[in-house]
Each structure stands twice: as C-alpha cells, then as structure tokens.
Amino acid sequence: MENRNLWLKELGCNEQLWAKELEDVPSMIKYSYTQLNNLAKDGQVYGVMLQCKDLYETLYKIPIIMTLIIIDSDAKYKEGSAYTDIFGEMDL
Fold first, then answer.
1. Enclosing domain of residue 80
2. What is the pLDDT of residue 9?
3. d(C-alpha 46, C-alpha 12), whole Å
4. Contact 12/42 with Cβ under 8 angstroms?
5. Residue 91 has pLDDT above 60, yes or no
6. Residue 19 to residues 23, 25, 30, 72, 78, Cα–Cα distance (Å)
7. By the 8 A CB rule, do 32 and 54 touch?
8. How far apart are alpha carbons 52 and 32 in whole angstroms?
9. pTM of the model
10. What is the rounded CA–CA span in Å between residue 81 and residue 27?
C-alpha cells in the first residue's frame, strides 16, 4: 500500500514544480495553493481534485468582486444602464 498514489506524492514533493515566492499573492490564493501542495505530498487524489476546483474558483472570483466594487464606488458608472443591469434597483 505504500506505493499507492506514489506518482502524486512525487509531484507534490518536487520543489521545482511548486512556486515558493508567494509574498505578493493574496492570502486566500496563497492558502489554497499551499493546501493543494500539501494534499499532493500526502497523495490524496480526490483532495487535490477538490482543491484545484477551490483554487480555480478563488482565482476567478477575486477579479469579479474587485470589478463590482469599482463599478459600485465610481459615480460615472452609476449613470448608465449597465449599473442597473448588474445591481438592479437596490440602493447599495
């Protein structure tokens, strides 16, 4: 049983495949990436698959949320119909 998922453990332990300079990366992304590496080192195939999904979701949600914040905070966007299409008639 020791050889089970050995290929994944080898990938997880190969330092050349994993980024180590993560100081400038947002903490949510850094955490997900570190978890992904730890799961790979442990040979947890399904955990790696789920963590890949979580990391992907985090990577695409952050720019979307930031864009919505910019649109909501900038008065010039509030004049157009796109603002109403995105946020509706609610007062944020």
1. 6-87
2. 95
3. 14
4. yes
5. no
6. 11, 11, 10, 34, 40
7. yes
8. 8
9. 0.72
10. 35
Spatial contact of 48 and 36, defined as CB atoms under 8 Å apart: yes
Task: Residue 38: count other Cβ atoms within 10 Å of its Cβ.
Answer: 14
Total domain count, the chain: 1
pLDDT tens digits for range 17-46: 999 888 898 898 999 999 999 999 999 999
Token pair in block for residue 81: 């119909």
What Cα–Cα distance (Å) separates residue 8 from each residue in 14, 30, 80, 89?
10, 20, 51, 50
pLDDT at 52: 96
Query: Which tokens go with 73?
Result: 């905070």
In a domain, 1, yes or no: no
